[in-house]
Design a protein that fits this description.
The chain is α+β, with helices and mostly antiparallel strands. It is built from 7 helices and 5 strands; from the N terminus they run E-E-H-H-H-H-E-E-E-H-H-H. Interacts with FBL, SNU13, NOP58, NUFIP1, RUVBL1, RUVBL2 and TAF9. Interacts (via HIT-type zinc finger) with the RUVBL1/RUVBL2 complex in the presence of ADP.
């Protein structure tokens, strides 16, 4: 025991790695060294000393951080009245344009990623789009797409044989080599049962 130097040590402090023999010695060492006994999850470990246990510890630490961040993002006090007001205005503008705009509850990934806005000067929506090309297992996200832009113009940088980016064109080869009339644009119907995909 590193505190009393009399008995055989049974315990090791996770924080400072000092050996103790009993609860009394544990308490004494905490007082003497101002140690809280909680393992430092961010302590430096050299590559030579790094083991599978350290890797598991790091993984669990990152999971805890992720859970804490997610819980904080869902907390109602984080979301200011300004954000609610902007969302309310966005819904009103959409209703006036005969658009059925639906928003997910706070904390959902789609809600967090969505960057759709309404420009009051230009009086038009700038949409957040996700293009999914199922035959190539490709997915692209577009931000700030004006509502007066046609689907043909939106898809031109992706599937046009002449104007599309060479790297994207190569990945979406099935679509670029097919005649334009064979390419169908579909929109997923939301709020359906999990197994019922349309």
């Amino acid at each position: 025991c590193e505190t009393c130097s009399e008995e055989e040590a049974k315990y090791r402090c996770p924080r400072c790695m000092k050996y103790s023999c009993s609860l009394l010695c544990v308490k004494k060492h905490k007082l003497a060294l101002s140690c809280n006994g909680v393992r430092d999850k961010t302590a430096f470990v050299s590559v030579n000393e790094f083991t599978d246990l350290n890797l598991l510890s790091d993984y669990r630490f990152l999971e805890d951080v992720g859970r804490t961040a997610d819980a904080a993002a869902r907390h109602p006090t984080v979301h200011s009245p300004t954000t609610k007001k902007l969302l309310y205005c966005l819904r009103n503008k959409a209703r006036r344009c005969n658009i059925d705009l639906r928003t997910l509850p706070v904390g959902f990934t789609k809600r967090r990623e969505n960057s759709t806005t309404f420009n009051f000067m230009e009086k038009k929506f700038y949409w957040h789009l996700k293009l999914i090309f199922p035959h190539c297992h490709a997915e692209y996200t577009l931000k700030g797409v004006p509502d007066d832009k046609t689907l043909a113009d939106i898809l031109k940088p992706y599937i046009d044989p002449v104007e599309s980016d060479p790297v994207v064109c190569q990945r979406l080869k099935i679509y670029t080599v097919s005649p334009q009339s064979d390419v169908q644009v579909l929109m997923k119907i939301e709020n359906r049962k999990q197994n019922s995909i349309r």
